[in-house]
## 1
Amino acid sequence: MKLEWMREYRDVVEQLIKYCNVYAAAYKKEGIPGTDIPISYAQIQVIEYLLENEELHQNMKQIAMRLGITTSNFSKLVNKLEQKQLLEKFHTADNRKEVIIQVTEYGRRVYQEYSDYIYREHFSKMFEAAKDIPKECLPLIADMLGVPYKNANCKKKEPPVLIPIHKD
């Protein structure tokens, strides 16, 4: 039975699902080829985001929101990366609760090894396959791929159940 809801996007959806399944299976596993230490794609994404946005000096909550993960999971990732000496934590001078994280020099080297490998082995082939797509279409493709994320974060939040505090 052909699934009619996919319409002319059947091949795109099928490939996207395959990609997501492969990525999901590898996302938290430590052992990405191309680096000299055990590191996961989830951990690499944190380093990548920090390197791209280091001038913003965002706090951990802001970064977690931008990456689309919970602050709890983000904190666990940061702690692992700090243990591996890939990140450092800092307090701001005016607020000790405000924690800013930065990539260490070692973290930069590990990321460079990873990015060289991932480009050579994966993305260069993807970019080659996409070379005939007009550049003006790329924002449309990015928007299309962003829809599931936007929908996942637009769920209506139920109001909290309030329980009175009795003072004895």
## 2
Amino acid sequence: MSTFTERWRELNWDDIALRINSKTTADVERALHARQLTREDLMALLSPAASAYLEPMAQRAQRLTRQRFGNTVSFYVPLYLSNLCANDCTYCGFSMSNRIKRKTLDEEEIARECAAIREMGFEHLLLVTGEHQGKVGMDYFRQHLPAIRREFASLQMEVQPLSQDEYAELKTLGLDGVMVYQETYHEATYARHHLKGKKQDFFFRLETPDRLGRAGIDKIGLGALIGLSDSWRVDCYMVAEHLLWLQQHYWQTRYSISFPRLRPCAGGIEPASLMDERQLVQTICAFRLLAPEVELSLSTRESPAFRDRVIPLAINNVSAFSKTQPGGYADDHPELEQFAPHDGRRPEAVAAALTAQGLQPVWKDWDSWLGRASQ
């Protein structure tokens, strides 16, 4: 059975870097006038040459976003269930080598978190854990997902990669989507940053979206951790290659792209390649031009001022008031967090900032009476 690994093996990192960096202003202008972007067009829009074309890129990205999504921006919030982790990763606050207090929420604590989140108005929930298959695996998910599902209109997860059968089972429990980030598509760099645990298996993680597609999960989220490799441009291009592969093979699935930049955390590292805010805008706009129908998401990793400027251009999915530690909404303990969010505004403040720019915050876009495969 074919997977993205086949396409990945055809792609040469150094060759892609050379091709991106050799693009000219003529290549960028050609891409800006293309009705449908080719891979070469995307390389041009991710290239250094495109930095001088940020304004026309942003204008076209905004136009495509409004055409596809209107003025709506969906809101979601992460619920961290556990910071236990059996992996040792150089960049993550949950890494097993970090001496931090560990916490896994029980049924009562989950109920308190859900109540606190519902009180803020959220209906779209992202469940997040460290990667610990033994203590926070399928048994834990089977025990707690049904109760959480009843409280929210949409349920997504960002946990350790699972098998196709496990994803299919979670779908019957109410799971709508899964976010799984490759971190970096450069195999040697991946090995340097994943020192122990099952996350060392580069290809098992790489093929996770294929298993999700075969399991019939409604939405798959992709992304690279920007700054982990020595070329954010190539990593972002590889995300696009992954997206194109999945769209071709699992066309009934919806897709989401995120743009996480390295943030400070316990035991953290310095980025190997720096992406400034203009370059992040360039990348977001390039993805909108490539895939007008795909959800583009921007989290609280970014500053309030930056988010307020960029969301109206091409973003249609945002988090707000995120707590990156288990129990953070009912009883805030920052020492347990995975990373330090940058935008700490309450959800109503984020919504007001978007409304002031003519956008419409959407807290709920689905209801169980509409039907769901798991019901």
## 3
Amino acid sequence: MVIDAITQHVRLKPEQIRRLGDRNFGVGFDQLLLIEPPRQPDVDFRYRIFNSDGSEVEQCGNGARCFARYVRDHRLTDRNPIRVETMKGIILLYCNPDGSVTVNMGAPRLEPEEIPFIADQRQDLYPIEVDGRTLEISAVSMGNPHCVVYVKDINREPVHKLGRKLERHPRFPEKANVGFLQVVNRTFAKLRVYERDVGETLACGTGACAAMVAARLRGLLDEEAEIKLPGGSLRISWKGEGEPVMMTGPATTVFEGQIRI
């Protein structure tokens, strides 16, 4: 759900966001996106993201594509790329001729203290204890913390049960989005994501980016790959450390309306 806070005055309280997010009594959404005036001179907009429980979060890749589609369709800007300020820095949004949107998600953060993840030193794989057994996971930040679990068949994994335990694992002080990644070949992988404070979601742009980074660091994927989620596929590219992750995918308007708050 996207709200224009440029041409109208918008100040939402957490309880109002929760009601709007309720699919029975409100509108219903995974995230509410606010388009606000920039606070910095070198950006076009401020981009704020709220979960349906009213909590504000740092980043949402799929939301960024919707953000770009909205501001272009409503003629709030004709710039390309669009520079957008988030809680974790500036991202660039490119509107492509075919209607897709490419998002420069910035360089991933891999040091444990930057994710944040509790570990003595950085590793590509970390052993982590869950229910008395040891799993090997990757930890990546794309502006928000991600835990990547490597699996042979995502359809046979207990995503809800294991995702909830890893989301709240004490080694992730700010909790984590948990991605279950099945690498099919060097240019194609499947992903299911248990989103922090939300549960399993049909699509997660930052999750797809984090999965790409984790798999690339292990030598499992090429520089560009298709990441297929239950809600559709994204094209992700990453040249390597210090370079930004580029995410390309669709953004489609479902409906528009007005609501009195």
